[in-house]
## 1
Amino acid sequence: MKVDKEEDLSKKCKVVEHIRHLLKDDDEARSFPCRKGMKWRRKLELWLSSIFLLLTITEAKPVIGSSEAVPFLISLLRDETDPQCKLDALHTLFNLSSHPSNISPLLSAGIINGLLSLVTDSSDHTWTEKSVAVFINLASNKSARDEMISAPGLTSGLAMILDIGEPVDQEHAAACVLILCNGSDKCSQMVLQEGIIPSLVSVSVNGTMRGKQKTQKLLMLFREQRQRDPSPVRTCQDPKRSDVDDVDSDSKPLSKSISTRKVGRAWSFWWKNKSFSVY
């Protein structure tokens, strides 16, 4: 029975791969630079639907993850593809990234840069939540975490989401930053340099329940790191102005800044507020 199931899965995967080859070699696709040909789009929708159905079978995930489907899916993130097809590709990559054995081929195919182009696109937030969700799946792997931390623009992109994103996007961004910074002082310093503390304080008060939990854990993590090595957020203030500074920090609204002085004030604000709890 097990052999029959494996043979059936193999046949289904071959059919999906055949559809991909039709997409790749389609004359109409080549005649439309932005891949907006109706015939090509219908084939693409069929292919994505077939993969989506196959991914409901756990055994199919590593098979598809090791195929040429992965680079093709990632290319859809970069191309001017129909928005719905791009979103379907993103959902498919999310499902693939949930299987540990697929992390390596996804990294090799350039998924981080593909996702980064969506996360940093301030003109359209359609992709933000699912893109960050894929990043969270990838971050379960150490090699992926290291590559993500080194990726130019990723930490600033996550900081931007925490600052101006929708509550659910902020929740995912906080979860991703927490995974990346936990055990990596380098990532913590990169994030702190983005002036992330005021945004974290804001989300810990006004965000979703899970967003509050994640940001509070992040603030605790940064506090512990600060106690071990206070130099990154050390402030040099005139003792004679300490009272004035305390008044200023209470009277002025928090705003995002990479200034170490403002970061210090944000820390003071958070730790004085006894309503926060860390889970």
Note: The chain is about 70% helix and 0% strand.
## 2
Amino acid sequence: MTIMSVPTAVRPQKRLDQDIVGVRVMGTPRSGTNLAKHLVERYLKVPVVFDQGFWKHGIFPALMNGRDLLYGELPIVVVSKDPVSQILSWYRLARNDTIFRPNRSLGSFLSKPFEVRQDFTQPGRMEYRFRTPSDYWNQFYFAMDALRRSGVPVHFVCYENLVSSPALSLHMISHFLGLSPPFDSRSVVEMPRQALGASNDIDRNESSTIDQTLFDPARAELASALARIGWRNAATILRGIDDDVLSATGRAGFREKCRRAAGPKAMLRSLIGFW
């Protein structure tokens, strides 16, 4: 699947102000979009839009009005996990039949075509197919960076930073949105005690947004993911990821970071298998 880059100068970057009516949050599944929504709405008091106009997990569509690119007129916050932690999370999720096709074998999961759908248990849902899970991660964030380079207001947030430094992340988001005054980076931000369940703009009032499992900040730790997935599998993932996309998401030098973070457990996991 190929994504065409949008022109780099469609229009100048829009200036945002404190009268902003909302913000769109996008990211791949299990990237932290629900956490970002929770924090932005609670602490910045800005409504968050997920699935109105575009699916938050879908490759951003090139909607055109003549030569002008349309993006829904809302600023966009893009959340990402590093590709190793992210794809490990997808593999865990792929053992059911909702958003990903089930796959029991990690090796097959990493190397075979990867299908993403709004809900595999329901008919009439949008569906995508990529060469591999890495291809999906790469294509999604490449498209969001292309949108940013076109002049659309797009701001990238690393999930690991959102977890480790939530006040600073909110400060940067508030600055991006043009809120005055911006959120104080010295503020105390209370993280949710329980994991946030999947949510959207349609079923918001029909289902609880809070899961019963405890919120685990360790899921943002690269070393923990490497110990579970193994260095060999991590290297397979990284072969499908472009350096410019890593940089766009705020992860310049990520390959070297992986090598430094890969401890004995990651090396041993490569020898004995995944579980």
Note: Residues 91 and 105 are 9 Å apart (CA to CA).
## 3
Amino acid sequence: MDHLILHDFQLVDHTGTVTRWGTYRPEDLNHHPDWWVERGLKSLSMLAYLAVASHITGDARYLEIQQRLIQDHAYDTNAMIYKIHRGLGSGNQSDDEMAFMCYYSLLKYTPAGSFRDRMLTSFYAAWRNEAPEGNPFFHFAYASQVHGTEVTDPWGRYSLMPSGDWLKDSMNTLKGFPLDRLNWASQNSHRLDIMALPPNNSIDLLQEDTRLRGHLKSGKVLPVENTHFNHWNTDPWSLDYGGSGNTLASGTVFLLPYYMGLYHGYIRGESGR
């Protein structure tokens, strides 16, 4: 964290060059035309990094810097829209994973107040967009930080509690993970219960998808047992997965949400719920 602050919110390597994705400085995020897409996520990330640094070190200096980024450079406003997308399944999936980690860390170490309410509102919008993916990490990260919170805007007061089958979907995903983590191919695009995502929901803003993507008639993505992936930044709207069973995937995609569910009480002991 101190490295970023010392180098004007940039990650600089030993050659003195800023790394490819290593800029978080206001001049770039708010004014450079090449960084408008990353503005929300990078602002959110920096606010979260500073909150965590203050919590770990007990040094209030990090929160003072956080406030400066909010008051002078509107990083909180930037973070209200963490990702440029066009609805379900669109945009970069890696951004979603990074954002949910940052939301969780930021809100965990931010006291009640207007700033926390704004970030909760942003988190709610992100969670609603991701809910059909049945991702237990996303569900647990969001639900654990809401705690019955209500927020107020000029038109009224609203609950941000998660709704629908989020807990059931989380449990189904965890229970459905194949014990065999080898990368066997999986084909689903021929199924009659699949509906294609419209072209407007493409991953890239400027071009349509080149591979088949879709969801079940329920509007939710394929169950985890019909897919194969190694990280939560995968595209769960993909229908067909290649592989020949010669690569062993990580178990972290299961362990992270499982222990998070245990920690926050959504999973009870070995029996689950």
Note: The chain has a mean pLDDT of 94.
